[in-house]
Write a structure and sequence with these properties.
Helix content: under 10%
Low-confidence stretches: none
Number of helices: 0
Order of helices and strands: EEEEEEEEEEE
Amino acid sequence: QVQLVESGGGLVQAGDSLRLSCAASGRTFSSYDMGWFRQAPGKEREFVSAITSSGGSIYYADYADSVKGRFTISKDDAKNTVYLQMNSLKPEDTAIYYCAARPTALYFARTRYEYDYWGQGTQVTVSS
């Protein structure tokens, strides 16, 4: 069982930056792939970013086209935490952001159904 707790959301202006954190419980965090999803009012939950590792300190990241070049995902296995650095935020980035986890499968998972564990979400609001 893995428990995930997101933090770092807030209200910012367009062009600002935020860093979201997702702290995980458990002793095998290094063996999990992590993902970030978001859900805007009235819309489906959508993929934002994912990170996986083949072992050691080498990580591989994947991004939705809408955030590529602006968002950066990272993972700190020593701190059991995954981060999402969000730069150049736009009003359309407004959503509840969720982190998710699944046992490492060495490929990127872009659908919510591929993840086993979810956090409660953190609100990000970007004003124009």
